[in-house]
Amino acid sequence: MKVKYLELKEKEEFFIKEIENPIFCLSNNNHWFLYSLKEKSNYFGYWVKLGENVFKIVEDIEIREEIKEVEIFDEKKIILITDNNKISIYLDSQGLNIESILPIFIKIFLDPRKLYSKKQLEKFSILPKENSFFLNFSEKEEELNFTISYDGNLKLLNSKIKRVYDFDKKRNSKDFEFEVLEGFEGVVSKIKILSLDKKPSSEIFENIKNQYLNLKKFVLRRIISLYDNGFLAGLMWFSQRWFRDELLSLYFLNIKEIKNYIIKDYLENLDDWWDKNKKDETISADTFLLLVNIMDDEDIENNKGKILEILENWKKKFMKNNEIILPPKSTWMDTLDRKKAIEIDILYLNLLKKLNLEEEFKKHKTLLKTQILSNLYPESEIYSPNIFLGYAFCKDLFNEVEWESFFNKVIERTYLKWGGFSTIDINDPKFKNKHTGEDPTSYHSGDSWFWINNLGAWCLKDLNYKKYEEIIKKIVDASIKNLLSLSVCGFMSELSSAENLTSEGCLIQLWSLSSLFKIL
Prior knowledge:
- By secondary structure, the protein is α+β, with helices and mostly antiparallel strands.
- It has helices at residues 12-15, 166-170, 214-224, 243-253, 256-268, 270-273, 287-294, 297-302, 304-318, 342-354, 358-373, 379-382, 387-394, 400-414, 450-485, 510-519, and strands at 2-5, 16-18, 23-27, 31-36, 45-50, 53-63, 69-74, 77-81, 86-91, 95-114, 123-129, 132-139, 142-164, 177-195, 234-235, 319-320, 323-324, 415-416, 420-421, 448-449, 495-496, 508-509.
- The strands form five sheets. Strands 1, 2, 3, 4, 5, 6, 7, 8, 9, 10, 11, 12, 13 and 14 form a 14-stranded mixed beta sheet that branches.
- The longest helix has 36 residues, at 450-485.
- The two termini are 27 Å apart.
């Protein structure tokens, strides 16, 4: 199918794409609509964030027209083109809208369900009004209230059907069969689905978008569309703030207004968040390190007492005998038990430098360099893409020749010819060539993560662009292809299989987008 990106019309190579099975996402801060003309998923549909919870309202919208092509107007609007009609689907601050030039036959499927739940909110009432319906769904303490208004004729069906989701079955999901509600059908020219419980979305960073041009502005608009009192880590199943992802994204974006605004929130919640990767008990050794590493000197000085207090707590939890020894699953590679992690050691070193703790800095630097240069540090850590994080935050740890030597080894052991890095040595017995879906076996044992691919390209460019030019271009090209031609049009997925460039994992991932923003 032909997909046109109207925002990129000036750049012909990005404007029109032929995509076999496009998926579309409209995103507007605290509500979003994922829509596919072919494959179906439990995670597609219209979703609304209410407080800390996310609910699905609409499972799917069936439009009985032959769609010839799709125009993506921006991150909030698409236009479906038929032989004699144009159908706009868009999100405003209030809800989901569908408008057509000529009336269309439409069918609306409902699935009032909390994210991750297998069970619908089963108690419901639907009250007809003039050209609208009021809907209330509830289950114990959970409740959804919304209206569907329309121009035309829309009748209530109110019957249950079984869905088998091909997209979820393909990615080894345990749950790919659900009951949904045939809600309404009729001939209409306008539909508005409005959640009565949703607070207005924030437009706090709206003016920043216009400071950039073309593709960089395009990417930034998608990133900001994921903001709701903090950045969502990804859609659909990571629609919370994941601190590691958010802090790294602030580093990648390097936009002062955004960074300073969000860092205030971290400083106010430091006692609760310093060892977590989200608000529950998900352990993280790098949240506190990343926060201090991206803070300005003035902010560090103004909060130094609190930072030093948390540092002592961090040492008690993550260090033994003055050496970092990590508990299981406490790094971004959270399916693995890494006692040593090169990025954690280097982030900690740079934290000591930023805090002017000179004696501790010298001791840790000497220990770390000695272990690395004398082969006492695990080779699997040194010669992995994680070394790029070390270069990004503390490139004076080694000289250019030494860094080049490390990068050459990383390329030799993990570089994939389509333009990415495997998470482990491709000759390692644990290496997985294909993504294993919801079975996490391949996640950090072969899968190629776009965020670290883009960071790697930036590091190679910063160190020696001429030498690594071909690799850098391939990585950027692969990320742009993922952005515009694979999976969800205009957004980047979490990762790819090692074997070939694919769109796998979470369909929309914050740090994939923000790292691309950095390298563009």
